[in-house]
Automatic annotation (TrEMBL):
It holds the Pfam family HHH_3. It comes from the Bacteria. InterPro entries: Endo/Exo/Phosphatase_dom_1, RuvA_2-like. This is Helix-hairpin-helix domain-containing protein. PANTHER family: ENDONUCLEASE/EXONUCLEASE/PHOSPHATASE FAMILY DOMAIN-CONTAINING PROTEIN 1, ENDONUCLEASE_EXONUCLEASE_PHOSPHATASE FAMILY DOMAIN-CONTAINING PROTEIN 1.
Amino acid sequence: MKSHFTFTKEQRKGILFLLLIIVLCQCAYFFIDFASNDIVINKEELARFQEEIDSLKKIEIEARKPKVFPFNPNYITDYKGANLGMSTEEIDRLITFRNHGNWINSAEQFQQVTKVSDSLLNIIAPYFKFPDWVLNPVRASSWNGEINENRPRTFAQKQDLNKVTALQLQKISGIGAILSERIIKYRNKFIGGFIADEQLQDVYGLTPEVIEQLTNEFTVKTPRQIKKINLNKATVDELVTIQHIDYEIAHNIVEQRVLREGFESINDLTKVKDFPSNKLEIIKLYLLLE
């Protein structure tokens, strides 16, 4: 064994020299950059690649832009007006104009009322959609059975919402077969139908704009008869019979009533813990205050 591990002086020098070469090669590998600085670029291929990227960017930008569909400017809400780029003052002028029972029938009149800039008007005016009787007054003189969504009607002119059919409801802009059937189905849940127009808020899918158009043509003329509950004397079991009030809310109402020593107004219910304030108008239909 000793003969295999014993080296002469020349052999030891050779081994040392070999190790030195290995160390130098390793250092050269880690510390010397052998990469060529001359990078060959195919300009035609790069141009095609950049053009494809630009094209995809344009498609994505267009897809992300909010889409605007034709709409009647008379029914612009705060939210929609803000999305269109209108200021708060411009939206308020429009709402005030509408609250006085007036109607906008042209883009020029819209600008006169709201005082929007020419640049904004040029952007949104192409999407204005006015009813046929405004655009074609001669044709509209011969009524074809379709309901005019803009012309206000008196109570006597309106049809009874508790007797209307699904087909008649579909004449309202924004109400199709599904929504009309949903309204009828909800009405038929109660023996006697609706108590008041406010219950339309509980029909899933009806927006405030569509409800406004709907109640311009239909209203509850034969309301379902109910016995109203005295808010200041009602028990928990009586309160839970009212839509949108469960046992937890009923207990909170009674507790708040005791603390207040009675409610002075039904609107005070909005201060009750967990009370559904957005359903107050519906809940009011079942209550009285004595």
